[in-house]
Amino acid sequence: MTITVGIGALTITDVVNVARHDTPIILDPAALAEVAKTRQHIEELATEPTPVYGVSTGFGALARRHIPQELRTQLQRSLVRSHAAGSGPEVERDVIRALMLLRLSTLMTGRTGVRPVVVETYAALLNAGITPIVYEYGSLGCSGDLAPLAHCALALMGEGDVRLADGTKTPAADALAAAGITPLILAEKEGLALINGTDGMLGMLCLTLADLANLITTADIATAMTLEGLRGTPTVFADDLQQLRPHPGQARCAANIRTLVADSGILAAAHTEFQRNHVQDAYSIRCSPQVTGAVRDTADYATTVANRELAAAIDNPVVTLDGRVVSNGNFHGAPIAYVLDFLAIAVADLASISERRTDRFLDVARNRGLNAFLADDPGVDSGHMIAQYTQAGIVSELKRNAAPASVDSIPSSAMQEDHVSMGWSAGRKLRRSIDGLARVLAIEILTAARAIDLRTTDDTNTPAPGTGAVVARLRETVAGPGTDRYLAPEIAEVVALVMDGSLVAAAKHAVGELH
């Protein structure tokens, strides 16, 4: 499989495939012809005495200085070198590759004025698996993700450090030479075009949406398992009740839960006792479609924003279809920053309700007949007591991450760039939140599976086909109830099964498609 970059917008799936699976890319010939045509126009403008921003001037607060032709290569090279000013830990490989693909996509629109050799070199770097080293701090999310993109542009010039496909750190010059890639000598406009985009924050949004598609369905699985493990009632998930409040995400979540607990022997055996003694389940169970459904709807809105951005050509100045070279504000990251922050709120709340469901299993006053902390011998054994502590610590961090980055702004560039989006920061904390959500859901599933096993005492108290399939998949690598044992590796194993989609796949194999 290959992905064509050029005519037509990339999809979120395209971004994920290149970023995480190293899918090769090819450049659309028609788009390359448009790149060449626009470049010819830029070279004509470069010879004119009238200053053109980004072509024959300085940048940002220095835009009023006209740069003579003999200094313009130095101008572009100096721009990239000075802007490659990141600091902190290295950014993950998939985020950098997503950023690179999205910058290449904009360059291929023909609206940036670069030469064809620039896009060809960028594509060669991606296809060779060469990943520039980018650092955590350096982008304010306005004028684009400047420092992260500059570190990538620096590698195109054969400068700075990169990592090879196997993760080896090496000087960019050596990596390019080994791959047969000639370092770029930048011409007018090209340095600016390479660094002026919202590609980092958009890349993180695309990766997050792919992860959430799996994690939201996983949350429905966790809810169904908890409902069964606590011998609750599925009646509240009836379709007609959901239609009284017609949010689409809510209906989809309730439908998943109904499917997953259908034909549950555990719930059937507990029905009469529930009606007599409990009447209602707690909010964390009863209202799960309302919460998880709202997360679905939030992700759907974020997908709309991502798709609009994937169809965009972001640069400043931009070369319009009629040949004008025009300064603009399309590099401002507000549209992406807002949804990154919105998702961080939704992710924190989804983790929070998962932790509350887990906690109910551990308290004898609320777990409907199970041992304290699901321990084999309470007092001698602690069961899942501290697993819930781990959840609580993660959820607390996710709540802190839910504080929006996009409401902050620190002026830069001598007050020329006096309002910035902080979208890169919003994306960075959201990536950490996604990791945390996966871990919280994994602990709920591990705990619920233990409870289901403890309920499965005879042929009538059997789990539903859907939930039972998930428990069975867990039991392939994680042992069932027993005396206390080293718990961290078991949590790590379930986290891996959550993250790679194995548990969703197991449920689907048993019950068919899930939303």
UniProtKB/TrEMBL annotation:
PROSITE patterns: PAL_HISTIDASE (PS00488). GO terms for cellular component: cytoplasm. One of its GO terms (molecular function) is histidine ammonia-lyase activity. It catalyses: L-histidine = trans-urocanate + NH4(+). GO terms for biological process: L-histidine catabolic process to glutamate and formamide; L-histidine catabolic process to glutamate and formate. The keyword Oxidoreductase does not apply. It is found in: Cytoplasm. The gene is hutH. The keyword Lyase applies. This is Histidine ammonia-lyase. InterPro entries: Aromatic_Lyase (IPR001106), Fumarase/histidase_N (IPR024083), HutH (IPR005921), L-Aspartase-like (IPR008948), Phe/His_NH3-lyase_AS (IPR022313). Its EC number is 4.3.1.3. It comes from the Bacteria. Belongs to the PAL/histidase family. It is an enzyme of class 4 (lyase).
